[in-house]
Structures are given as C-alpha cells and as structure tokens.
C-alpha cells in the first residue's frame, strides 16, 4: 500500500522568538496541507497512530522575514483529512508547549512617512535700539528661511550675566520684529536671545555678543528748530497757528514756554509736549499774539533755548491827507502821508488811480509807488479828473482808499496857428528818361512787354513808334503810364511785329526819346 502520509506537526515557536521574528510565513505549510487531498486511499491504520499522539520529528523553523506578507499566521495544527472524509487534528508531541488559544493579530501595514517640516533659520540683525534705566528695546529682521507653513512668531528670552536661567519675555510667540523688555534693574547685565518658531520647530537662537548693560544713556538737550521757523513766522489775522518743534535729550527733558519773561496765556495758546517734540497752537490768531516766544528745554541743569518770532498781520489803513498840489498843462501833482495803521507790517508801496468825469471809471496810473508824492502826466485836454490812493503791505491793498478832495480840469491853451512859410521852388523840368528801353527777343504767339521810365514837369506826353511810324489806336498794342513808368504790351506777336520800337516824351520844355530792337522767333 503506497500512499503519502500526512506531514508531521510543526513545533510552535517560543513566545520570545515570536516577538523578535514576527509571524511565520505561510508558504511552507500551504504545500503540505495541499498534499493530503492527493491521497487515493489512506488506510485508517496509519491514521490511528497519529490520533494516539505519536511524536513527530521536529523540523527547523525558517527565519522570519523582516517584513512578513499580510497573511494570517497558522499557529494551530492543520487538520488531516482521512479516507472516510473526516478530519483528524494531530496531537502535539509530549513535552512540547500547547498551541496558543488565539492566533496573534496580523501586523498593520506600514504607512509612508510624511517629510518632516524643517525649522526656520536664525533671525537676522539682532541689535539694541534703546536702553533706559529699567528697560531696553530690541530689533531684528525676519529669517531667510521660514518654511512652507510660515512663522508662528518669535520668542525672546533673557538671562542675567553669570546665570544660566533663561526666562521667556513673551509667553506666546508674536510676529513683530521689535520688542521692549521692561521691569529691569539699573546696573544689570542681561543676555538676550531670540528664537523663530514655526510648525517645524524652533530655529537656532540669535544672540548678542555682549550683554546689555541697563543704565540711562544721558543725552544733552537740543532743540531742532525747523528752517522756516528760524525767520519771522507770518500769519494773517484769523488764521490758525500750528507749529511743531522737535527736540532731543535723555532722560526726557522738561519743556517750558514764555513770552517776554512771562508764562503764556493758556486761554489763547495751547501747548502740548511729547517725549520728542512740542506743539504750539493758536486757534484764531490776533495781532496781539505777535511777538517773540522763548522755548526752553532743560535736563538736570543743562538746557537749550530757541526763539520763535510770530507776526500776525492784516491789510493796512488808507493813506492820509491826500491833496492836489498843482495842475499845469497835461500834468497833475499829488501828495499824501502814510496810513495811521500799517496792518502790523511794512508798507510796500501805494497804488494811484484816476477817473475822468465823462466815463466815471477808475484806471490805475501807478503801482507800488514807494514815495508819498507823485506826478501824473499825459492827461487829456478838456477832461476833468479825480484821484485816489491805496496803501499796500504784505497782505495786499487797504480796504478803502484816500480820495483827493478836489478835481483837476485840464484846460485848453489859447494859441494862434501860424502856417510856416515855404519858399517857392521852380519844379519845371524837360522830359528825361531815367530807365531806357532794352533789346528783347520773344517767341511767336507769346505776348511781350517793353518798359522804360521818364520824368519831367509838366508831365510829358508819351508817343510810341515802330520803325519810325507812330503806333495809333491798334488793338494789338496797349500803352500805359503810371508814376512815370511807361509800358507797351505787344499781344501775340508775329514775325512782322519785329523791328525797332521808340518811346518819345514831349512837354512844353522839350522832348526825349529812347529805342530798342524786338526780334520775334
């Protein structure tokens, strides 16, 4: 009886080996289990010893792979099919440990690891901006690399010199690149470091090479007067005066204003001081606000002073005592005196205007006249004139003008016309040609002209001749004379129109003639 017997039972691995090696591969047991159905007629006598638990030879267990396939581990003994169709479970050998009650859970499939977010780089340009007696201010720049998620903020830490106990100034990260560390003791030396924080972690901290010494840095007071305020500051009446003057000094200086050695009137002038400047404000300026104001900035006996000169101006009043001094020919002389009120500004000049009685309109004669007198000329004979004068300063013309009390009447002068005696001159002159005729060549069928000029008195008579024959009323010829210029037009000449042409001038004193030759081709 030839038949294959069932494979011997596999010895279970110890617990320690299972933890290290993992589940046994399935490939080794699967072929042995498939070999049982191939038996044609397995005798029951051979299956009985297996049921009695005969010891099976032990087989060496192959080493577990590093990454086992995802298949359930077969720790239990595989059932053996018999000839009758029933399955018999093999009994483990004596002295071998019992198989576990439940198979271990299959190992989970390892997931691909996500790339870790890199931390940001170190903050740049860490520096101390300001130090006071109990605090200091830091500034820095953002790191070059912040990561894909961006920065969550910065954490500032401090540590006293000689200690290793670092304390965070801010509990939560902040995004500002400026931080003031308060509540420090004067004289302390503080080490500082700044760390950039993001989703990938914290950066390498940026530190200062030297610790920060907490003490007040003294700075002498200095007023930085703007350039336009170094000269007189001019405003019109009713305008607002709003001036800001910066200064410097540490610790914070004390600021005081005065005018003529007296404190300012707080009902008219508002003063507001900050740590770096002072503001001088007047809502509506009046002429009484003009004057020199003294600004003083002092720190512990050291001080700096500056003067602010304010001038509030308005248009001036009209000139006084305007009068007509003299009227002669076409001229009028005027005089006046300066106005009683100059508008708190220098008088730049005067504007003089005139008005004639016929039109009643005012016309400007002089502008910016710097004297208090003037002479007006080129007046029209027979007209009556009135005059007025405005005063002018930096604000403009006065609201009203001074008008002369009288009028100036330009009278006609009585004179007799005597015509000039012109000596008689003899203008008689015989004819004389000033421009002779010139020879010409013309083309057949094209009209041509002959020109000459003559003078004489009385005006001479002009006679044209052709080949010594007088040209009379012939439509082919047109003779003209204008201002002594004589012309003869020959219309569409032919070959027979060629010859010698003569111009003769005749008057009672004589005669003159000129001739020329005309060729027709």
How is the topology of this model organized?
Elements: H1 15-21, H2 29-35, H3 44-51, E1 80-81, E2 87-88, E3 124-131, E4 136-141, E5 151-160, E6 167-168, E7 178-181, E8 189-198, E9 201-202, E10 206-207, E11 212-213, E12 219-223, E13 233-236, E14 241-250, E15 254-259, E16 270-273, E17 277-282, E18 291-299, E19 302-313, E20 320-328, E21 331-337, E22 349-356, E23 362-369, E24 373-376, E25 384-393, E26 396-397, E27 402-403, E28 408-409, E29 429-435, E30 440-442, E31 448-457, E32 461-466, E33 469-470, E34 477-482, E35 485-490, E36 499-507, E37 510-520
Task: Work out the helix count.
Answer: 3
**Shape, per Cα inertia axes:** elongated
Question: Cα-atom Rg, whole angstroms?
Answer: 65 Å
CATH architecture of the largest domain: Sandwich
Protein name: Myosin-binding protein H
GO biological process, one term: cell adhesion
Biased composition (Pro residues): 97-109
Family: Belongs to the immunoglobulin superfamily. MyBP family.
What this model shows, in words?
The chain has 521 residues and is mainly β. Strand 32 and strand 33 (469-470) form a beta hairpin. The chain has 3 helices and 37 strands. Residues 1-79, 81-89 and 91-96 have low confidence and may be disordered. The protein folds into 4 domains: 124-214, Sandwich (Immunoglobulin-like), CATH 2.60.40; 219-313, Immunoglobulins (Immunoglobulin-like, Sandwich), CATH 2.60.40; 323-410, Immunoglobulin-like, CATH 2.60.40; 429-520, Sandwich (Immunoglobulin-like), CATH 2.60.40.10. The relative contact order is 0.07.
């Amino acid at each position: 009886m030839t038949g294959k017997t069932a494979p011997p039972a596999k010895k279970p691995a110890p617990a320690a080996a299972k933890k290290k090696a993992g589940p046994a591969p399935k490939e080794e047991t699967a072929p042995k289990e498939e070999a049982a159905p191939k038996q044609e007629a397995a005798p029951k006598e051979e299956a009985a010893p297996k049921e009695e638990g005969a010891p099976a030879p032990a087989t060496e267990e192959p080493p577990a792979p590093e990454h086992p396939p995802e298949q359930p581990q077969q720790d239990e003994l595989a059932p053996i099919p018999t000839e009758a169709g029933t399955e018999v479970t093999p009994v483990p050998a004596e002295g071998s440990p019992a198989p576990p009650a439940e198979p271990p859970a299959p190992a989970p499939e390892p997931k691909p690891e996500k790339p870790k977010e890199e931390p940001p780089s170190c903050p740049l340009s860490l520096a101390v901006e300001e130090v006071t007696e109990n605090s200091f201010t830091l500034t820095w720049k953002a790191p070059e690399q912040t990561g894909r998620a961006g920065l969550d903020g910065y954490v500032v830490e401090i540590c006293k010199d000689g200690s290793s106990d670092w304390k965070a100034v801010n509990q939560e990260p902040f995004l500002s690149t400026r931080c003031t560390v308060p509540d420090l003791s004067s004289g302390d030396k503080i080490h500082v470091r700044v760390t950039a924080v993001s989703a990938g972690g914290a950066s390498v901290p940026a530190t200062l090479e030297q610790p920060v010494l907490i003490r007040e840095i003294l700075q002498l007071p200095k007023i930085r007067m703007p350039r336009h305020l170094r000269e007189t500051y001019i405003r019109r009446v009713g305008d607002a005066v709003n001036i800001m003057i910066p200064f410097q000094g540490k610790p914070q200086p004390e600021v005081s204003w005065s005018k003529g050695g007296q404190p300012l009137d707080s009902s008219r002038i508002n003063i507001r001081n900050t740590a770096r400047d002072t503001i001088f404000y007047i809502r509506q300026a009046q002429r009484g606000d003009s004057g020199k104001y003294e600004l003083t900035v002092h720190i512990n006996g050291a001080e700096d002073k500056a003067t602010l000169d304010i001038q509030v101006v308005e248009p001036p009043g009209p000139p006084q005592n305007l009068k007509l001094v003299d009227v002669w020919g076409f001229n009028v002389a005027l005089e006046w005196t300066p106005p009683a009120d100059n508008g708190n500004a220098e008088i730049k000049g005067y504007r003089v205007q005139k008005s004639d009685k016929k039109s009643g309109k005012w016309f400007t004669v002089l502008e910016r006249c710097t004297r208090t007198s003037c002479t007006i000329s080129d007046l029209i004979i027979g007209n009556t004139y009135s005059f007025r004068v405005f005063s002018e300063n930096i604000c403009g013309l006065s609201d009203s003008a001074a008008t002369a009390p009288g009028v100036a009447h330009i009278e006609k002068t009585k004179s007799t016309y005597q015509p000039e005696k012109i000596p008689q001159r003899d203008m008689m002159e015989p004819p004389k040609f000033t421009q002779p005729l010139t020879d010409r060549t013309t083309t057949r069928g094209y009209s041509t002209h002959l020109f000459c000029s003559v003078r004489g008195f009385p005006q001479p008579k002009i006679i044209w001749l052709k080949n010594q024959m007088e040209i009379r009323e012939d439509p082919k010829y047109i003779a003209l004379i204008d201002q002594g210029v004589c012309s003869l037009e020959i219309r569409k000449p032919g070959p027979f129109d060629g010859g010698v042409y003569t111009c003769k001038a005749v008057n009672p004193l004589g005669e003159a003639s000129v001739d020329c030759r005309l060729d027709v081709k």
